[in-house]
Amino acid sequence: MVTTRMQKFDELIRRELSVEIQAFFPDSFISITQVHVSKDLSFAKVWLSSTQDIDKIVKQIKTVSSEIRKNLSKRIVARRVPNFYFVSDKTEEHAQKIENILSEINQNEK
Questions:
Q1: pTM, to two decimals
Q2: Which CATH class is domain 4-109?
Q3: What are the residue ranges spanned by the domains of the chain?
């Protein structure tokens, strides 16, 4: 069960991370779709999406994640700033595959 306080902290991390990522990668359009911070605030899983090659972007972000964390620790007043685990959000790709399958089924029924 996620409390309102944790939801607010997730949102705060999402907003601040977005600013930091845009500062490090100004030429890329990167969107943070979700953030889930552990209850002890030591770990945060961050889902990213982009119009570009998302796997390549995730690798690049992982290389500067310690700097991003350091910058966030100066901007956020909290007991601790979590370590980040960045993953690519493949929701749109999965939705497109399902849409294609459904379209194919509809065409076969006609």
A1: 0.78
A2: alpha beta
A3: 4-109
